[in-house]
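Pipeline run #58 for the internal structure catalog. This entry was flagged by the ingest filter as a single-chain record with no existing model, so it goes straight to prediction. Upstream metadata was stripped on purpose; only the residue string is passed forward. Reviewer on rotation: M.T. Logging verbosity set to normal.
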Amino acid sequence: MESIAEGPKERAPGEGRRPVGSRSALLPPGRLACDYVVPCLARYGLCVKDAFLGEALGGQILAQVEGLHRGGKFQDGQLVLRRAGPARRIRGDQVAWVEGREPGCRAIGALMARLDQLILQCAGKLGGYEISGRTKAMVACYPGNGLGYVRHVDNPHGDGRCVTCIYYLNRKWDSKVHGGLLQIFPEGRPVVANIDPIFDRLLIFWSDQRNPHQVKPAFATRYAITVWYFDAKERARAKEAHQRASAQKEGASSATGADGPT
């Protein structure tokens, strides 16, 4: 299986520049969207932008994330797979959900605003998606105890999420030493995209089954912030399905209560 490594690549026969490691100076959201993000997503299904916010703001965000960690704001994000045989842990991160307006989180809010501007500039050019909103920011920490996140798809069941944005905060990160590599396995292509979670790096990719991915075991504290953007139509369908399921569940509970002992 071919590996898409880090950094700018020479053009392969019949291919353009690979969607990794853009290190150009800070660009306005409009130029970044039109010149880089939209073409990369259309061609590869993912893109990586280094030096996304710059040292000053990136450093403020890192300090705020470290403050959340010290303050005990993170909770286990673990899922446990219970099938035949022993239970298996799916993810080893700890997470905190942030709106960006909380005390001590304003720099994280600035990141979210910058992402909003970028995605807004991509409007109408994201494969037919109509962006209607986003999640809160999921601030995640792998504590360095050798755990990762098994191969998965962010949105396998049509919950409305269409674009995943991950911002990394790890200075002097060496995946050969620290682990924590994110690997994406683009659907239908014999390649793997190896993404080092280095400081001030932004990763964007489609959230559906086109991009199964995993986080390799991390052996040092690893921080990332993830925001998912919703497609309007798929999100509306997901909400309607949830409401129907909830109504059916309530109806079943009422029927059970009526038929029970009196």
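catalog note: The chain is about 30% helix and 25% strand.
catalog note: The chain has a mean pLDDT of 86.
status: ready for reviewer M.T.
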